[in-house]
Amino acid sequence: MAQKTSYDIAVLGGDGTGPEVVREGIKVLKAVADKFNFSLNFSDFDFGGDRYLRTGEVLPNNASDELRKFDAIFLGAIGHPDVQPGILEKGILLRLRFELDQYINLRPVKLYPGVETPIKDKGPEDIDFVVIRENTQDAYCGMGGAMHVGTPQEVATQTAVYTRFGVDRALKYAFEYTRKRNKRKQLTLCGKTNVLTYIYGLWERAFHEMGDRDYADIKREYTHVDATTMWFVKNPEWFDVIVTGNLFGDIITDLGAMIQGGMGIAAGGNINPDPGGVSMFEPIGGSAPKYTGKNVINPLAAIGAAQLMLETLGQDEAAKAIENAIMEVTANKLKSLAAGRMGFTTSEVGDMVASLAV
Ligand code: IPM
Ligand code: MN
Predict the structure, then answer these.
(1) Minimal-distance CA residue to ligand 1 atom 12
(2) Domains and CATH numbers, the chain
């Protein structure tokens, strides 16, 4: 198939500092598109807390159908101080992940040069792995309920559900990704086979069956999730690609973000790898409302999300150019990744990355 040269991108700036960081991502995307001879058309959507407070509607019913018409979605952040926790997260982010069947959450954990990690004696050569988190099942599927709420007899259940189909498609993506990454060709399943015997028993059998059958070139490892958090801190260099369930993936990727320098740098993709699937890319930090409009927030995570978007769209060279520019900025320009302490404004950081990428 010939490489596409024009892409329609839906932009969901979202809440708080989301629109500010997305603006810098778009700046960088436009710069590399010119240089690498493709074009991008951006369309804005106002989904988020402000719209909800104004209209009472979290997400219009036709949102997924509208978004399906795009080649990719660029999301800023969801989360508003005046909206009760859960409403926007479930009503926008999780709903889009489910309705667009973005069954992979891709989270690279890479320590860039010049970035401070809280882990003593570890450097960029030690922290460079990718977490592939299943993104549509597990405790996130919304099965469960409660009764006698607010009384001493309150009962609550929330069931983690996995299907063989859902596990297999996540594993297939993970094996293929590990092969394409071509680094150490090692895929680690992170689970809890000693307690969640049904769920991670299923994952483990499916993992080895698929590995034996189709991926003899990929080395397989297994770690329990609790031990994984230990190894992230003690020996992050042991990892190449990790595949795990939705909830464990949620938890370990926040730890991953911290060891790569924090929320200012961590990016993720909600990916539907199927033909015609629409994927959504986001900085994984929150909306940081207290910094809204101050031009002090770090846009590198959003720029990293833009890089992941181009990689997924098959514009590898342009993606690489963005990553190299990010590394140049972390190595030689920024004083810190923290909001207000970078030594530059949000838009100056975007300008620097955009000019270094071309
Ligand atoms: C994430 C977030 C979401 C999740 C929340 C906001 C629903 O923490 O993308 O990691 O739990 O998946
Ligand atoms: Mn999370």
Answers:
(1) 250
(2) 1-116+261-358 (3.40.718.10), 139-260 (3.40.50)
- For the CA of 282, the nearest atom of ligand 1: 9
| Four-residue CA torsion sign, 181, 182, 185, 186 | negative
Q: What is the pLDDT of residues 224-263, one digit of tens each?
A: 999 999 999 999 999 999 999 999 999 999 999 999 999 9
User: Which of 279, 303, 299, 273 has the alpha carbon at shortest distance from 288?
Assistant: 299
Task: Provide the 10 A C-beta neighbour count for residue 39.
Answer: 12
The tokens describing 179, both together, are: 């092969």
Q: The tokens 């970035």 sit on which residue? A: 115
- pLDDT tens digits, 21-34: 999 999 999 999 99
CB of 94 within 6 A of ligand 1: the answer is yes
pLDDT for 340: 94
Q: Whose CA is nearest to atom 6 of ligand 1?
A: 89
Q: What is the dihedral of CA 115, 121, 123, 128, to 10 degrees?
A: -110
**Which of ligand 1's atoms lies nearest the C-alpha of 78?**
6
Tell me what the mean pLDDT of segment 203-215 comes to: 98
Dist. CA 250 → ligand 1 center (Å): 6
Residue 3 has pLDDT above 80, yes or no: no
- Ligand 1 centroid to Cα of residue 36, in Å, is 33
Q: Which residue's alpha carbon is nearest to atom 2 within ligand 1?
A: 250
CA of 140 to the centre of ligand 2 (A): 12
Pocket test for ligand 1, best of 89, 95, 97, 131 (most atoms within 8 A of CB): 89
pLDDT at 15 over 80: yes
Compute the distance from residue 96 Cα to the ligand 1 centre, in Å. 12
96 lines ligand 1 (CB under 6 A): no
Asked if pLDDT for residue 328 goes beyond 70, the answer is yes
pLDDT of 1 > 70? The answer is no
Average pLDDT value for residue range 28-53 = 97
Q: What would the DSSP string read from start to end of 130-151? A: EEEEE-SSEEEEEEEEEESTTS
